[in-house]
Design goal:
11 strands, single chain, elongated, alpha+beta, 6-stranded mixed sheet, Arc Repressor Mutant, subunit A, 13 helices, Alpha-Beta Plaits
């Protein structure tokens, strides 16, 4: 069924073009939209016309015209016109035809949307993918990549509408949603496009939504696929990239599945292995023994390639103060983060600990 917004625009256009007052009634006898308030006075005539299936497809009498609108053989609306009967028949037939075309276009769009959603969720058999794609004239062999966009505010409809206006204009790109938290863009690529071009598209997405829709978003994308059947793979990778980003790369606005590094590896580890590793590194597996100052110090130390002088300068502390803080960490863990191997162990352990916290939420 069409939205009231579309129906309202339709009756306004019909009234403006034909000069007739116009209303659309549904099969429950409700006047959905109208161009004049007094059109609701004809409820009884509409009801008689709607319920009497022996009546013809249209009826014009006493300055009132009623025209049935069908979808797949079922009557869904009644278009009503009011005014001079001259020219009313043609105006009513044209108006009913316009509404039928809108219903067909809406149904076709919903069919494509449902197909893309099932494709992403891997709910289709291989033969169904190609049969339905052929029926809808969707190219089966085409380079594509899937973007998953996460608005800062859940359920932000403006993001999806903006993306549809930018990309969902043919049979190659699709914008849809599977839940209220994310919007999915299935983007077609040129045969020569590679990951630098995909990264550029992601940057444009984030910038455009921030500038035009005034919405802060994060975007993740999977690997490039060559065939329609592999779109679900790219979607799952993009979805995982967002999850990994929430845990390990909170400052990033754009996340690429093929650039997640060790974060992707840790994310896929079983909980039992993670717990075992934490017990090996930390006493009783506890990681909440560090003060915020100690963690800030050690992370800054890592960012500066284990350079004590540069780290002390960045933290505005004396060299001896920095060494004292690092030694406090050594006493708590037995790891001397000034040594590369111990620093690597500590870094990985803290990432595993963040992953465990996320899993427990």
């Amino acid at each position: 069924m069409l939205s009231n917004q579309i129906l309202h625009k339709t009756v306004q256009d019909i009234a403006e073009i034909t000069g007739f007052d116009c209303a659309i009634w549904d099969m429950q006898g409700l006047c959905m939209v109208r161009t004049s308030e007094n059109l609701t006075e004809y409820e009884s005539q509409i009801q008689d016309f709607r319920e009497d299936t022996s009546e013809p497809e249209e009826m014009i009498e006493d300055g009132i015209g009623m025209f049935r609108v069908y979808e797949d053989g079922d009557q869904v609306y009644i278009l009503m016109l009011k005014g001079d009967t001259e020219g009313m028949q043609m105006a009513g037939r044209m108006g009913a035809s316009q509404i039928r075309n809108l219903l067909y276009a809406y149904k076709e769009r919903m069919d494509k949307n449902r197909f893309v959603q099932n494709l992403l969720l891997d709910n289709l058999l291989l033969v169904d993918i190609y049969n339905q794609a052929k029926k809808m004239k969707i190219p089966a062999e085409l380079r594509r990549v899937v973007f998953v966009i996460e608005p800062k505010n859940e359920g932000d409809i403006l993001v999806q509408e903006t993306l549809k206006g930018l990309y969902a204009t043919g049979t190659k790109d699709f914008v849809t949603a599977i839940d209220e938290k994310h919007i999915i863009l299935v983007k077609s690529l040129q045969s020569t496009d590679d990951y630098p071009q995909v990264e550029q598209i992601a940057k444009e997405l984030v910038t455009t939504l921030n500038m035009e829709a005034m919405v802060s978003v994060r975007a993740a994308y999977g690997t490039i696929v060559e065939e329609l059947k592999d779109v679900s793979k790219s979607y799952k990778e993009a979805d995982m990239a967002l999850e990994v980003g929430r845990v390990f790369y909170t400052e990033r606005k754009i996340l690429a599945y093929n650039e997640l590094g060790i974060g992707r590896l840790i994310h896929q580890l079983p909980v039992s292995l993670c717990e075992m590793f934490l017990h090996e590194v930390f006493k009783d597996g506890a990681v909440d023994v560090f003060e915020e100052e100690e963690l800030t110090t050690v992370y800054t130390f890592f960012d500066n390639n284990l350079n004590i002088s540069e780290t002390a300068r960045r933290l505005y502390v004396h060299r001896n103060t920095l060494v004292y803080r690092l030694e406090k960490i050594q006493k708590k863990t037995g790891l001397d983060v000034r040594v590369f191997e111990d620093a690597l162990t500590f870094k990985i352990a803290m990432m595993v600990a963040d992953h465990m916290k996320y899993m427990k939420v």
